[in-house]
Amino acid sequence: MGGEAEGGERRLGRVLSFGIPDTALGLVMGYVEDPWDRDAISLVCRHWCRVDALSRKHVTVAMAYSTTPERLFGRFPCLESLKLKAKPRAAMFNLISDDWGGSASPWIRQLSATFHSLKKLHLRRMIVSNDDINTLVRAKAHMLVSLKLDRCSGFSTPSIALIARSCRKLETLFLEESMIDEKENDEWIRELATSNSVLETLNFFQTDLRASPEYLTLLVRNCQRLKTLKISECFMPDLVSLFRTAQTLQEFAGGSFEDQGQPVAEDHCQIVQRCPNLETLEVRDVIGDRGLQVVAETCKKLQRLRVERGDDDQGGLEDEQGRISQVGVMAIAQGCPELTYWAIYVSDITNAALEAVGTCSRNLNDFRLVLLDREAHITELPLDNGVRALLRGCTKLRRFAFYVRPGVLSDVGLGYVGEFSKSIRYMLLGNVGESDNGIIQLSKGCPSLQKLELRGCLFSEHALAMAALELKSLRYLWVQGFRSSPTGTDLMAMVRPFWNIEYILPDQDEPCPEYKKQILAYYSLAGRRTDCPPSVTPLYPAV
């Protein structure tokens, strides 16, 4: 009977492949890049699953504790590219204790011993030791073309020098926002400049790494393919020789100018007006509404816009020019129709501005808005109708963040979020809702939602558990600030096979208020964690 079943499976596979040879089927699958589509292909039959496994070249593991390196290699033995994330995103904002976990060591050991085709490695929010880098370099130096240590910690500059000296095929070295122990000043950049001639991207933006203008110029001179250079703080007049040498450079970040007393929003306007073909813009909110109006008038090809929060204590920010409101948001929505990514900090916002985004920004796949608490009063509350219009109009959205102030989004608004978030896979909500009914209403929709982060919403344990069960695609949930049950057992309702739950108290030395308590829950095929620190209590682990 077993042989007949196996033979039937092979015949079924051939029928479903429409006579396409495995080699051709693998090549066709190679053009399918969306992981959801690849997952759907692998579920057609076992034969297609095997072809998918052998032809899959890239995998993103969104949570390092969700699987094991051994299981991943067994499933995808021909991987050429791996992206691996560990610590929750909240760690970027110092909301997760440093000892939470996220060591890269077990992964580095396994992928160095196996993963024979691996050429690109991207580690994000992980602890990477000097020993880890030594192990990786010994095994993969001859083939690595891309190494990204993204918001990582635990290593020092001698290890970067080792990478520079040993990985001579390296085209991308990415270290942005990593915490790196500097021991040999800028010797690492000299090693990179003299050992590598094929580098195309170097990024150590927002790190404490130092690099002398002389060594940077040497790097640019020797690396004739260099297209992207993002550095730590450096005085721009010292880089004149670098820019004269950089014939192929297309993207630069990290320089600074001496303050000469001119209003910063005005400086932005003068630069932007000379960049009509700009496609990506990252600035601080000091650009103000006036600056965004200039962007909208000038940059019709803009595709990505990120406006970060400026320094509240910096001179000039008390001026209205350093504030962004519905005026700037409406200008960008109406003037930059090709935007696909938009993240912005605002001091005020209205329903009409959000409706303009929904009407004009139809290509958005990622929208993130944070409403700051600088102003005592907001022009209009609530913003339920504006959020409904935005989500109804931006049908291509896959990622949505709406971090506001209490009263901005009611339970009715959360119901709209659930109803009109058909394709959204990641969502961050802050200070939204009025009662448990809000999260329950949201959970009745959002059919594609895989990752949900909530902060400052103060829903009850029971409501959170019910919502997690209702959201059928949910794989990951992080909550900071919730109403605890008297016995702490209301989360029991969330328990299911392979669903790990962690209760996190960031401060162990004193009683933790409810708004600081955290819940982290995620699917895992790796079983219960074995490296939990005292701040993390595993609850009802998978059986």
UniProtKB/TrEMBL annotation:
Ranges where the Transport inhibitor response domain occurs: 77-123
Domain COI1 F-box intervals: 19-58
Gene3D superfamilies registered for this protein in UniProt: 1.20.1280.50, Ribonuclease Inhibitor
Domain of life where this protein originates: Eukaryota
Cited SUPFAM superfamilies: RNI-like
CDD domains, per database record: F-box_AtTIR1-like
PANTHER family found in the cross-reference section: CORONATINE-INSENSITIVE PROTEIN 1, F-BOX/TPR REPEAT PROTEIN POF3
Name of this protein: Coronatine-insensitive protein 1
Matches recorded under Pfam families: F-box_5, Transp_inhibit
Organism: Zea mays (Maize)
Residue intervals passing through the bilayer: none
